[in-house]
C-alpha cells in the first residue's frame, strides 16, 4: 500500500510541541472543519497522514540518522532494556543511548526526538478528533466513526510510549506530562500519571466501541484488535488489572484473525520465507507495507539493524542479542538459529537469520535499494505472551500455561516443562519468552518495566558491560528535554 500524503503531510509538519507556532501555510483546524462538512473523506486522509508520520525520516524533528519514527524508538528502547547490545560502533549513532547519556542528560537530542515525535502524533490525532466533534462526540456516519476510533487509538499509543519513557513507574500522584486533548498553541503544565492513564483508558475504550465492525484496508491501519492490545498494555503498565489484561488479550487471540508464526518462517535463508519482513505474514497484527515510493535506505530500521541492507548494520554499527539472554535459549529452540553463533566473528549474535531484508542474497549488504522490506509494529505472539503473564499474575495458572504452551509448541520439541510452572515461576517464564520471541521488535523495555525487572548487561556490550540496572533507575527514564523546559514556563516551574 502506498501511503497517501497530500494535505495530511502538511498538517503533520506542524510539530505539536509546546512553544511551536503554527505557520500560515499549514492547513488550519478551521480549514479541516470546513472541509469535513463538505467532504467526509478528509478526516480519513488526515488519519492516513498520521500513519505516514510513523515512518518518516526526521519525524522527531532532528537530522539524526536515528530519527525515523516508531521503529527508531524501538531501537532506542531495546538498547535501554539491555537485551539489544551495541557490540561495535564505528559511526557512533547509538553511543549516547547505550551508555545512558541520553536518559541522564536532558540536553541530549535523543530524548528530544522521542518527546517531539510522540507529541506530533498527539497533535495530529487531536486535530482529527476536534474536527469530528470533539472528545465527547460520537459521529453518526461509519466513516467518521472509524476515523475517530483510529485517532483516539493513535493518541493513546503516543501517550503510552511517553509514560513509559518519561516516568520510572506508575505512581498515580506524580506529575509527569502535559496532557493535550485539544488543538491549541497554549502551553500546559504537567498532569498527574493518574490523569494521563485515565485518558488513555478512556480513549481506548471509546476506540474499541467506535471501531466495532471496521474492516481495514491494510495492516498499517489500527483496528479494534489494536485498540484492545494497547488497552491491555496500558493496564499492564499501570498494574493491578491482570484479569482485564487477560480478557482483552484473549479476545484478540480468539478473533482468529492472526496465527502464530510457524517454524519454517522463523529462521530466514536467501530463498526461504521470512516472517519478519513482510506485512502479509499471518502473525502480524499491525505493520506497514514499505514500497519504493517510501524511499527508505540508510536511515531506517533495516539500515540500522539488518546486515543484509548495506547500511550501518552491515558497515560497523552492530546490534546483537545480549550474550546472557542468548545463552538462556535452549539448543533445541528454533529461535536460537536466528542469531549468528560464530563467537570468533565481529558479527557474533547479530540477528542475521531473524531479520533479512527482501531480495538479499548470500552476501552481506546485498539487499536492493530502496528498501522495501516491511515494518512490523505488533504480532499476535505478543498477545499470547501478555495473556500468559497476566493470567499467571492473577493466579490463573491453567490459562497461563495454555497460552504459553500454544506459542512454545512451535518453538521447542517438548513443552512438558511448562506443566510444572506456577505462580511467579510462570510469570518469569512468560517474561523470558517475551524477551526471546520479540527480540529486536521494540517490546523488551515495555516488558522490563511491566515486570519491575533488572537489566543485567552481559560481556558483549561495548558500554556498561556487566552492570545491573533496575527498571526504575534514573538511567531507564528520559528527562523532559531542555527546549521544552525553556519554552514551556509551566514545565520549568514544575521542574524547579
Task: Give a quick rundown of the structure.
The chain is mainly alpha-helical and 496 residues long. The protein contains 20 helices and eight strands. The protein has a domain of 273 residues: Serine Threonine Protein Phosphatase 5, Tetratricopeptide repeat, CATH 1.25.40.390.
Keywords:
496 residues, mainly alpha, Serine Threonine Protein Phosphatase 5, Tetratricopeptide repeat, two-stranded antiparallel sheet, 7% strand
Secondary structure elements and pairings:
Elements: H1 6-12, H2 29-38, H3 41-53, H4 70-81, E1 84-89, H5 95-98, H6 101-104, H7 109-131, H8 142-166, E2 175-178, E3 190-192, H9 193-210, H10 224-238, H11 242-254, E4 284-288, H12 301-305, H13 312-315, E5 317-321, H14 323-327, E6 375-379, H15 380-393, H16 397-408, H17 423-437, H18 444-450, E7 454-456, E8 468-470, H19 482-487, H20 489-495
Helix pairs in contact: 1-3, 2-7, 3-7, 3-8, 4-18, 7-8, 8-9, 8-10, 9-10, 10-11, 11-15, 15-16, 15-17
Written account of the structure:
- Residues 353-489 form the RagB/SusD domain.
- It holds the Pfam family SusD_RagB.
- It comes from Polaribacter batillariae.
- It is found in: Cell outer membrane.
- This is RagB/SusD family nutrient uptake outer membrane protein.
- This protein has 496 residues and is mainly alpha-helical.
- The chain has a domain at 6-240 and 458-495: Alpha Horseshoe (Serine Threonine Protein Phosphatase 5, Tetratricopeptide repeat).
- The protein is built from 20 helices and 8 strands.
- The strands form 4 sheets. Strands 1-5 form a two-stranded antiparallel sheet.
- Helix 9 runs antiparallel to helix 10 (224-238) and helix 15 (380-393) runs antiparallel to helix 17.
- The termini are far apart.
- The model is unreliable at 1-28 (pLDDT under 50).
Amino acid at each position: 500500500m502506498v501511503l497517501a500524503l497530500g494535505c495530511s503531510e502538511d498538517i503533520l509538519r506542524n510539530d505539536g510541541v509546546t512553544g511551536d507556532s503554527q505557520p500560515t501555510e499549514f492547513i488550519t483546524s478551521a480549514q479541516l472543519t470546513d472541509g469535513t462538512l463538505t467532504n467526509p473523506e478528509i478526516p480519513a486522509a488526515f488519519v492516513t497522514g498520521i500513519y505516514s508520520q510513523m515512518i518518516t525520516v526526521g519525524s522527531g524533528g532532528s537530522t539524526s540518522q536515528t530519527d525515523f519514527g516508531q521503529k527508531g524508538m524501538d531501537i532506542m528502547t531495546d538498547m535501554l532494556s539491555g537485551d539489544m547490545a551495541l557490540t561495535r560502533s564505528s559511526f557512533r549513532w547509538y553511543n549516547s543511548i547505550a551508555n545512558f547519556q541520553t536518559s541522564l542528560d536532558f540536553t541530549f537530542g535523543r530524548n528530544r526526538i522521542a518527546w517531539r515525535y510522540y507529541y506530533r502524533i498527539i497533535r495530529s490525532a487531536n486535530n482529527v478528533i476536534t474536527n469530528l466533534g470533539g472528545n465527547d462526540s460520537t459521529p453518526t456516519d461509519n466513516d467518521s466513526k472509524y476515523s475517530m476510533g483510529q485517532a483516539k487509538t493513535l493518541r493513546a499509543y503516543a501517550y503510552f510510549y511517553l509514560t513509559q519513557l518519561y516516568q520510572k513507574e506508575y505512581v498515580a500522584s506524580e506529575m509527569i506530562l502535559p496532557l493535550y486533548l485539544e488543538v491549541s498553541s497554549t502551553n500546559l503544565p504537567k498532569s498527574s500519571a493518574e490523569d494521563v492513564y485515565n485518558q488513555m483508558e478512556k480513549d481506548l475504550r471509546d476506540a474499541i466501541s467506535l471501531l466495532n465492525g471496521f474492516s481495514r484496508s491494510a495492516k498499517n491501519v489500527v483496528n479494534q484488535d489494536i485498540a484492545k492490545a494497547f488497552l491491555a498494555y496500558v493496564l499492564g503498565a499501570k498494574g493491578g488489572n491482570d484479569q482485564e489484561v487477560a480478557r482483552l488479550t484473549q479476545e484478540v487471540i480468539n478473533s482468529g484473525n492472526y496465527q502464530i508464526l510457524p517454524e519454517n518462517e522463523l529462521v530466514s535463508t536467501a530463498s526461504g520465507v521470512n516472517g519478519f519482513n513482510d506485512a502479509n505474514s499471518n502473525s502480524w497484527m499491525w505493520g506497514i507495507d514499505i514500497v519504493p515510493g517510501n524511499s527508505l535506505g540508510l536511515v531506517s530500521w533495516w539500515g540500522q539493524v539488518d546486515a543484509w541492507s548495506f547500511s550501518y548494520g552491515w558497515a560497523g554499527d552492530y546490534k546483537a542479542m545480549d550474550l546472557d539472554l542468548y545463552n538462556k535459549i535452549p539448543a533445541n529452540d528454533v529461535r536460537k538459529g536466528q542469531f549468528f553463533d560464530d563467537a570468533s566473528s565481529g558479527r557474533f549474535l547479530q540477528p542475521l537469520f531473524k531479520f533479512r531484508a527482501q531480495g538479499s542474497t548470500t552476501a552481506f549488504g546485498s539487499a536492493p535499494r530502496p528498501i522495501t522490506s516491511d515494518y512490523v509494529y505488533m504480532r499476535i505472539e505478543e498477545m499470547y505472551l501478555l495473556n500468559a503473564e497476566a493470567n499467571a499474575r492473577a493466579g490463573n495458572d491453567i490459562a497461563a500455561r495454555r497460552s504459553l504452551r500454544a506459542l512454545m509448541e512451535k518453538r521447542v520439541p517438548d513443552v512438558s516443562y511448562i506443566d510444572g510452572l506456577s505462580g511467579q515461576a510462570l510469570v518469569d517464564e512468560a517474561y523470558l519468552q517475551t524477551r526471546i520471541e520479540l527480540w529486536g521488535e521494540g517490546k523488551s523495555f515495555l516488558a522490563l518495566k511491566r515486570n519491575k525487572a533488572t537489566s543485567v548487561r552481559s560481556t558483549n556490550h561495548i558500554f556498561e558491560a556487566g552492570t545491573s540496572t533496575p527498571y526504575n533507575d534514573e538511567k531507564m527514564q528520559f528527562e523532559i528535554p531542555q527546549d521544552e523546559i525553556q519554552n514551556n514556563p509551566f514545565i520549568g516551574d514544575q521542574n524547579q
